[in-house]
Amino acid sequence: MAAVRRYLSSIRTDLLAACLEFVGTILFLVLGMGGIQAAAFSTHMEAAVEEAAMPNYPQALNQFASVEQLLYISVSMGFALLASAWLFFRITGGVFNPQVSLALLLSGCISPIRFALFLIAQLGGSIVASYLLRVLTPGPLFVNVGLGPNVTKAQGVFVEAIATSALVFSVQMLAAEKHRSTAIAPIGIGLTLLATHMFAVVYTGAALNSARAFGPAVVSGFAGDHWVYWVGPTIGCLISTTLYSTLKQCVTSSPTNDSDIIAMQS
Amino acid sequence: MAAVRRYLSSIRTDLLAACLEFVGTILFLVLGMGGIQAAAFSTHMEAAVEEAAMPNYPQALNQFASVEQLLYISVSMGFALLASAWLFFRITGGVFNPQVSLALLLSGCISPIRFALFLIAQLGGSIVASYLLRVLTPGPLFVNVGLGPNVTKAQGVFVEAIATSALVFSVQMLAAEKHRSTAIAPIGIGLTLLATHMFAVVYTGAALNSARAFGPAVVSGFAGDHWVYWVGPTIGCLISTTLYSTLKQCVTSSPTNDSDIIAMQS
Amino acid sequence: MAAVRRYLSSIRTDLLAACLEFVGTILFLVLGMGGIQAAAFSTHMEAAVEEAAMPNYPQALNQFASVEQLLYISVSMGFALLASAWLFFRITGGVFNPQVSLALLLSGCISPIRFALFLIAQLGGSIVASYLLRVLTPGPLFVNVGLGPNVTKAQGVFVEAIATSALVFSVQMLAAEKHRSTAIAPIGIGLTLLATHMFAVVYTGAALNSARAFGPAVVSGFAGDHWVYWVGPTIGCLISTTLYSTLKQCVTSSPTNDSDIIAMQS
Amino acid sequence: MAAVRRYLSSIRTDLLAACLEFVGTILFLVLGMGGIQAAAFSTHMEAAVEEAAMPNYPQALNQFASVEQLLYISVSMGFALLASAWLFFRITGGVFNPQVSLALLLSGCISPIRFALFLIAQLGGSIVASYLLRVLTPGPLFVNVGLGPNVTKAQGVFVEAIATSALVFSVQMLAAEKHRSTAIAPIGIGLTLLATHMFAVVYTGAALNSARAFGPAVVSGFAGDHWVYWVGPTIGCLISTTLYSTLKQCVTSSPTNDSDIIAMQS
């Protein structure tokens, strides 16, 4: 009886956490993708669209953005994550990202049930955010991700993988590890997303997060390269998790090294 | 007798707080709206004005801004709030926003008298800031807010509502709740305003604050959509307050969940 | 004898502090004004110069800058102060600004001797930084400040005064007052300078600091409006000091209010 | 026997630290230089390239960048260092820079063996990051550094020296010194790199780090001015180390001054 009650209570907590994850993902993506949509909507847009020789993917702004628009997108996404992760950090951890959830599952921080609920919440949140943006702004939605001109699918996969590994590693090092600056981890995680966008956004749109790629595709159509945004970030998650586990093992396997490494904190 | 004295003392404190709120609102809006005015005054302005086919609302820069000007406006408003909230945070809380005051009233943090005094201080501060900008800068004032091209009033109301709910929620989660990073709450609140501007500024001008919309309208004229900036942010305040109350109830109603949720802080 | 020794020791400390102030001012202004010089040197510059109808003040970039250059200048100056104030904060306080020194003198934080030594160090540091920039970069120096087109001298004085009062107030509230976030005061002060630049740079060049205006003028020539950059910031210093003193008096005169105001820290 | 074991254990720790330095350098430079490559790849690029009359150094973007691209580069490099230094800070100190290592060697923080291993790791990491960027992005690599138009080699050396001295000094003051804000030193160091880039990037490309200059040159060719990026940053390291040592001596030589200086922390 007690075991059943405990199980139900744990399910209830998981459901509550997933609800918050759903709301947080909507907030993150309405603000972040809303910035992308805004960058596409400025008066300089029409010229840029005509200039662009990309009739196949009209809905992915990153494919014909100017350097000003790339900066605008990076700042929007970075500070949207910084803000929404900060607001939800003390409650659910502010994940908003299936690949980050996967890393937390692999390192035993969350259970498989919570991972599954979070995945549904994140994909659902991204779809809702995309619909909201389509309804709330005039004109078509421009927040899809797509490979930039002349970027091959293999390049796209590895650009997504490397950038995602940095993002996941920031969650592992700043939030999952407990230390004096854990309280400001959302700042570090958001600014890591900003830094990764500055690199990746022009080549792949910088999803770094399958939910962020999935929602807009549901609303404005899947492109042939959509799988890139599932394979790439997942590889990145595995790279980061491998690095993180190796690191923890090296540090804990030899107590001498441990103190030495801590002494290295210059 | 003692009750009267206590009442008078409390009124005196409320008046002092309202005076500071008045000064702080002037500082916030002179800097933030000053940045908007500056973006309109740069040498590229004339071309942009001629380019724009918006004779009806000549005073709202957001309606014909380039992506560079949108970034400039967002950074100005975000860092103006970050700075002025930080300076006044330890004294009055640095509200500067009727919808944030309303949220504090609804959750019992401030009394109805203080809310009323703050409202007067905020509206007055915004009017003074707008007059200062008109007197201190050459040419007409460009800091009104207005709906962007093809943005319907319903869209405007909900863009304002969603963006305001994020701002109000940031005050509730970062400043009203006490925890280790409360001292740096103004950073989180200012950067949340930055993130919301990146999304909303091109569509509605991103008031997120009826006082910020009201002051410039007093100085350079009310547009037909002015009510949007009272209804939208107030809806946003209600959304955020509902979410915040639900959250507090869920967490406190079940002690088991509470600790569990806190354990989720990854 | 002991008094003489104490006096000499205090002079020695003052001289050491002034030397550091000299080095810190050079660092701040080489980085900050170096960013202005860099913005003027980009390949788009020539067009902007020809476009500009301002033959009288060819050396003040702010007088014909595009909105991108205004952002570049603001970010340069803001983060240059953030960085250099952070580096010198624990040693001399990282003032680099005669008007901030004056505020510290008026509130009794520094002695008149130290104020005088700091003034010499700040003016000298600004001259050295300006010479360094002229020697280290090709072409003429573009880092003078000057009133923007159609900006009257009275407007210039009050724009400088208001912006300087915000900067000085940030030093008084964040660094002079001791509290939990004092250690990160340089972040708040630097970002306040960023916010004030976003407003003031296009109208006056945003000196907010007579030393910052004086050094480049020594190197590339004084304009007829140079006095604006002594009168304006000094008025700003007095505004901020008056506000700060009033505030301290209100809070300490009535202990009841004090606790009440602290309870308002939401 | 024990001595040998201790020696071997210390070598093992050094090797582990060097491996992490290698990984961290790759992360820093893939993100930071990736942002430069992205700025070169935007659709406005072709016009800029044709506009530029610089056939000799086609691979150094900083030599013909617009002010928007300069901002993009500065933000990319600054936040890439902020993020990667934050992630690796608690483990190896997050150096990623031979001149910073040299400063740590000179002040006795690291041993000569560790310096040598770090140098190999940093140069190797930069080469790997450059190859990764060439393989992962379409078109030629644009991340070399080079002297801007009309910038002499002597100017280049001293621009690099001054900017590097600021960066090295930030590591010495924020990370090597222990105090209340040491935990957030990576923020200060990253933002110092941002501030130095705003100044130096248009004149020299702002290497401030011989490894950052060396890697791309191995991949896309050495220019005749490559030595500038070894001599300049090393001079900067010596300037900063001299200043830092003098400062420590002044403060510790006279206990009276010490407390006085600490009392100056306003």
UniProtKB/TrEMBL annotation, chains A, B, C, D:
Superkingdom, natural source: Eukaryota
Transmembrane segments: 15-36, 70-89, 101-134, 154-176, 183-207, 227-247
Coiled-coil regions listed in the entry: none
Lyase listed as a keyword: no
Record's bilayer topology term: Multi-pass membrane protein
GO MF assignments: water channel activity
InterPro entries assigned to the protein according to its UniProt record, in alphabetical order: Aquaporin-like (IPR023271), Aquaporin_transptr (IPR034294), MIP (IPR000425)
Protein keywords: Membrane, Transmembrane, Transmembrane helix, Transport
Primary location class: membrane
Localization (cell): Membrane
Full protein name: Aquaporin-like protein
Species assigned in the record: Sistotremastrum suecicum HHB10207 ss-3
Lineage of the species this protein comes from: Eukaryota, Fungi, Dikarya, Basidiomycota, Agaricomycotina
